[in-house]
Amino acid sequence: MDGYNNKNRNNEFYIQWHFIDSCNLRCTHCYQKDYNHKEIDFNMLKSIFLKIDEAMSKWGMNCFISLTGGEPFLKPEGLFYLMDLIEKSDNFKKFAVLTNGTLLDDRIISKIKDYKKLSEIQVSLDGHDEETHDNIRGGGTFLKAVESIKKLKNAGIETSVMFTLHKKNIGSAVKMLALADSLKADALTVERMTTMSEAEKEEFFIDASELKKVYSDVYYKAKEELPPKDTKLVTSRPLWNLIDENIGGYCPVGFSSICVMHDGTLLPCRRLYLPLGNILQGGLFKVWYNSDILWEMRKRDDRNECSSCAHIERCGGCKAISYYRNKDLNTKDPQCWI
Amino acid sequence: MRILKLSDNVSLKQYQEKYMLFDNLNGNIYKLNRLSYEILLLCDGKSTDEDIVNNIINNFAVSTEKAAKDFDDIINTLLDKQYVLNII
Question: Of A215, A289, A298, B74, whose CA is between 20 and 30 Å from A145?
Fold first, then answer.
C-alpha cells in the first residue's frame, strides 16, 4: 500500500467563501435568492475557519481564499474578523475580497491596507457606463463602485474589475477594457454568467457564435491596446483557449477548488448549486474524497464529451453551464463554438 | 478468528483503473492494488478473516498462499493504522 505524496506546500488550494448571505443590492442576474439580513455568527465563522485551516495544515497545502457574500462589506466586522484569522495562519498564502464596491469608505480602505496577505480587492462592474451598470445593479451603484476603485488604487491596494457578461451588457464587453484601464485597475476579468434556469436563459444567455465574437474582440483589442503593465486581461477560464492556445484553463473545481457557504455548506462552485455536504459535519476531506458529484467533475475520459477535443487540457468548458442545460456535468458546454 | 470492519474514518474508491483508500481525518491518500481493494471491500463488520480469504480464492485467480499472504500484509498494515478494526 503506497501513499501518494499529496502533501506539498507548493500546491495551492482555492476556496471561495461566501461568509455572509446578506446583500445591499438586488442585481438582476444574481444567483442569490435568499437575503436574510442575519447578524454575523462569529462562532460559526470561527468553526468554519478552523475546519478549513485544519484541512490545509494536514494536507500541507497553501490556501488562497476569496471572501465574499452576499456583500462582504455589509458586515465589515465579520470580514475583518476573518481577515485577522487568515493573516495569522501559516496555512493561508493570500486572500482576496470580492465586492460590489458600494460600501467602502475611507476608514475601511485605510484598515484594509494593513493586511499583508491581501492579494486584491475585486470590484464588480457590469457595464462600461452608468446606464448599463445601474440597470443591472441598481441606481447610483456605478458611480459608487468606480469611486471605490479609485480610492483603493490611490491607497496602493491591488484592485481588479469583474465583468459578468450576459445578454444585457454584451455591448459593454469590449468597452470595459478602456474603463478598466482608465481606472488603473490591475486586472479585468470578463466572464460569462451561468444561467441556472430556463427563465434566466431566456433573459441572459448568449449564443455560442455571439460569445465567440465577444471573446475574440475583447482578447484582440486588449492585446492591441491594453498595456499589460497596466491592466491585465484575465483569461484563465474555460473557452478562452479556443481564442488563443496559450490562454485559458480547465475548471479547477474538484481538483484544487471548492466553495464554502455562510453556514458551512460546500458547493462545487457558487454557480453550481449542488450541495456536497457541510464542512462542519466531518470536515473537508470527507466531502472532497467521497462526493460522487466531485468525482463526476473529475472525469477526463471518454465519459466526458470534451475528452477528444484538442483543447481539453486548457478548457473542458464550464460544467455549471453544461449541468443547467443538460443535467449532466460532462456534456459539451452549450456556449462552446467548436 | 477475527471479524474485520473498515473504520468509519476511511473510505475506498475505484476511479478508472485506480484503487484508492482515503483517510478522511488527515487527508492521506493510499494507492491500492485491485486485490487489496477487494479485500477491504469485504471488511464489512460481518465477514470473518477466513470468509474473506475464501471469497478471494473463489473469485480471483490466486492461490491459497497468495491470497493468505496478501490478506495478512494489507490487514496487518491497516490494523496498525486503525484503518481496519477487529470488532470481536
Answer: A215
